Known about the structure:
Elements: E1 14-16, H1 17-20, E2 24-26, E3 32-42, E4 51-58, E5 61-66, E6 70-74, E7 77-80, E8 96-98, H2 99-103, E9 107-110, E10 115-118, E11 121-127, E12 130-137, H3 140-147, H4 150-153, E13 161-163, E14 167-169, H5 184-188, H6 191-200, H7 203-216, H8 218-227, H9 230-238, H10 242-251, H11 254-262, H12 266-275, H13 278-288, H14 295-298, E15 305-307, H15 312-321, E16 331-335, E17 341-346, H16 347-352, E18 370-371, H17 376-385, E19 390-394, E20 400-405, H18 406-413, H19 418-421
Parallel strand pairs: 2-7, 15-16, 18-19
Antiparallel strand pairs: 1-11, 2-3, 3-4, 3-8, 4-5, 6-7, 9-10, 9-14, 11-12, 12-13, 16-17, 19-20
Helix pairs in contact: 6-7, 6-8, 7-8, 10-12, 11-13
Amino acid sequence: MIRVSSTPAHAPSILHLSSLAGSPLRDSDGERLGKVEDLIVRLDGAGYPPITGLLVKVAGRTSYLGVDRVSELGPEGATLRGAQLDLRRFERRQGEVLLRRDVLDRQLINVDGARLVRANEIELADLAGSWRVVGVDTGPRGGLRRLLPKPLGERIETREFLDWASVEPFVGHVPTVRLRVPHPRLAKLHPAQIADLVEAASRREGEEIIEAVGKDDRELEADVFEELDEHHQREFLEDRPNDQVAGILARMAPDDAADVMNELDEQRRETLLALLPVSQRIKVRALLGYDPAEAGGLMSPEFISLRSTTTAEDALNAVRLSKISPELLTTVFVVSREGTLEGSVSLAALLRAEPQRRLNGLVKHELPCLRADAPFEEVARLMADYNLTCAPVADEQERLVGVITVDDVLETMLPRGWRRRFGLLGED
């Protein structure tokens, strides 16, 4: 057990990494043997990472010192337990990270805030006799206290403290560790928030986030990829083999997959199309035939259309059994026996209707539809005029071929980089 003297028993002892790094290493008699270079923690468990050892330099040799060999740890340095010094050469074990070398001054993911921050200081606490990492200081004061001489630096209070439980460090540069796959809270972020993190990170860090997400949840990986801007999509596709890219495209919505395909050269596009499942390949190839700036290029071929004689109960069952993404399930389209569009019924109207009432009795207004070659301006105008969240696209025979959602229109209207422009990512 490591003890720290002169500390109230009721409060945990708090140390800063900057006060320990470079501090003396002494024997049990108080004689200086060398200095503390770094602290070693394990990141492969839950909770606050425990200090498992110290990296020390004695007589010009850098070695590993197990934490069980240390009796005291504090701003004055580390004191050995017993008279003997067993200095073993340090070799990383699975899950081990050096706090100073691998975490300090590097970016981390603030999962609670869905943003990137920098570890300017690392805080340690003595919890029930075990030293653990409990938080990081992301503010400028944490960096300033390290730049000043220790007596001055230790007078500066750290104010922008983040609980370690709310952060994830990037550790792709550490050979024995990977970003947790994924942090439970990271997995609960919206795909758009994770995409924002990827875009704000360096390319290596962004790759690390994508890799962590993909190993745990392939569907989430595809959702995140859909939310990336064109530049980052191309960047992440460059070095990936075709089978990996096809795997991501197969899990994406067909219209989003087609948008990605449009950014590739023709040869690779055909190669990837051949690797897609047949159903996805047919949808994507059909969408590639439309102009991206027109209704056909904006629409999704996934929708629910039912005969006008279908009951509300059966329509709700069709929605319940559908695998279409939720944003496309706000509306059920009503078609005649010949397949021509007769109108639509909102999901709310279906929920409120008597179970045996037919859809033709729930259609209130004639629904205008778009042609596939309708320009974007016409799409935006029609959806605004009729307050539509989902607009139908029909062929020359009035048969439904796709739908355009309001988010597709907004994405086209907003300027590139709008998330950062309006401060949604924030900076620390």
